[in-house]
Every structure is written in structure tokens, then in C-alpha cells.
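for the writeup, i need someone to sanity check this before i put it in the appendix. the sequnce is what the collaborator sent (i think, or maybe the updated version? ugh). structure was predicted straight from it, no edits. if anything looks off just tell me and ill rerun, i have time this weekend
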Amino acid sequence: MRIIFFGLGSIGTRHARILKEQFSHELFAFRSKKAEQENELSIKEVYRWDEVVQFKPEVALVTNPTSMHIETALKCARLGMHLFIEKPLSNSMDSVDELARLCREKSLTCYT
């Protein structure tokens, strides 16, 4: 399974570490900018949405800042990815209904 992380801070890294230790999934991380050094888990990093599209992840773990959760989740859902969104779901109710509708229409699993 191909899994992409949006946010590789302490929470994202914790989830990635568990997945690496317990499974043999192909992991990627979407990063907003190139870090000076490789991430501690040596997860391949991508920096543009066209790279995400090319990678074709099946699952997205949304562990970026709360204010970006819904925006990121909507982009991923539109690409047909199942979602794991770190709590809280968002800092506002804007577009939550749209995300729920999109997940229902595409039969996507969405966990928070």
C-alpha cells in the first residue's frame, strides 16, 4: 500500500514509525520545503502536488497544522485517497460538509 504523510512533525513521525515497524507499506511525505537534512525515518519526500498525483497514494495521513487539515483532506479525497486526519478535524466547520459528501460519493474511509 502507498501511504503519504502531510506533516512529518512529532505526530506524523510517530505514526510513520509505527507503520515502518509493523508493516511494509511504501511511505512518502509531502513537504512544503526541502529540509537541510533527511527526515529521521528516511521516508522519501515530495514537494509538489504533481508528484503526489504521480505517486498515486491510496491513503493519506493528514498530520499537518490543524488549520490546514480540511484543505489537505479535500485535495486528497478528490484524488481518491482514504484519509486519516489527526485530531482535531479542523479549527472551523468550513468545508467539513463538503469533505463528508466527497468521502461518501467516492466511498472513501475517513478516520479522525
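Helices lie at 10-22, 49-55, 69-78, 96-105. The mean pLDDT is 94.
thx in advance!!
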